[in-house]
Amino acid sequence: MSEVQLREIELLGKSVEYEIRRSAEASEPRIDVDIHGVTVVVPHSIDTLPTELLKENASWVLEKQRMYQAYRDEAPKRTFEAGEEFPYLGETHELVIESRQSHTVSATDQYQTIRLRQSAVKQSSVKRALENFYRNQARQHFADRAEQYASQMGVEYTQIEIRNQRTRWGSCSPSGTLGLNWRLMMASPDVIDYIVVHELAHLREPNHTQAFWDLVSEYHPEYVEHAEWLKENSARLIFSKADL
């Protein structure tokens, strides 16, 4: 269990709102900055002053805030209507809603489309049907890529969970569960492969040591390029304003 307290502090001349979350699960104090704000997580067992931690890391906190503000500013304006364009595996696809048996992707010489089942849209919404399409595609695509790379890397994972994090692309638990964000289906296959290799590498090297990055580089030599793409272009993978 954790308890949350709201505070405000001045960092390098700028007023910053933050939460204090005292947690029995945390082993050491840390600062989390995401698109929703700043949180200082403090273990119950450690007497730490959140203000000191924030001041010591003021530049980092402000830079993270600036990054997430830019992320919000660059977010695509989605209307979720037929004819709108959405990325799928790094390529632009026009959204089509029609009477059909299932959602699918199709391509011609002129353009590529995501075709949604009309009855599913009527039962829920375009947004929900499209998200379900991405999730279903992610489940198969991630499984295929993880199986291939796990075999090459000589590691075993237990399962893949399709996650819905707003700012995290992947995770790997000590038990071998890979958590992969379905929004990655809007990125290119190479970027997806980088995240899959990154998380599988944690099964051999838990921390981001040089040995870890050497392992990632062995199986995905272009990892720096694709990690940088995610850093600079993650706003392109925002699905809706609910992500903000």
UniProtKB/TrEMBL annotation:
Coiled coil, from the record: none
Domain YgjP-like metallopeptidase: 30-233
A Pfam family hit: YgjP-like
Protein name as catalogued: DUF45 family protein
PANTHER family attached to this UniProt entry: UNCHARACTERIZED PROTEIN YGJP, UTP PYROPHOSPHATASE
Taxonomic lineage from the root: Archaea, Methanobacteriati, Methanobacteriota, Stenosarchaea group, Halobacteria
Domain of life: Archaea
